[in-house]
Amino acid sequence: MENAKSNDGNINGVKEKGKKKIIRIQVSKTKKPFFFYLNLAKKYIKQGNDIELCALGMAIPTVVIISEILKSNGWAFEKSIMTSTVSAKEDKEGRGIPKAKLGILLGKTGDIDQSTVAVASLGKDADGKA
């Protein structure tokens, strides 16, 4: 596993999957503005990489909004969603507090294979209307 450093200094995990890379973007509610993460995701998608948007706790809605913007504008499609609970240390005693974790894996829409396109067009008539 390689590592790529983003502009904000966070280390994003990079996994090789065949010729494609999966870039992990760890979204924070407080460190960078919303549009920073949106533009970073668009940049990696345009390069042909798959991206995994990850968030904990209060940053989860930001990841969902970024994902929906990328999908609704036709830049990406959803490959998978991963949910879990992690133990985060937040107090001085070092006790673990459970936090929700969300990961959304997105791929570039231009890389959809023909079977996916065929399934998506089943509900349309000859003119492409639903």
Automatic annotation (TrEMBL):
It holds the Pfam family Alba. Residues 25-74 form the DNA/RNA-binding protein Alba-like domain. One of its GO terms (molecular function) is RNA binding. It comes from the Eukaryota. One of its GO terms (cellular component) is nucleus. Gene3D superfamilies: Alba-like domain. This is DNA/RNA-binding protein Alba-like domain-containing protein. It comes from Psophocarpus tetragonolobus (Winged bean).
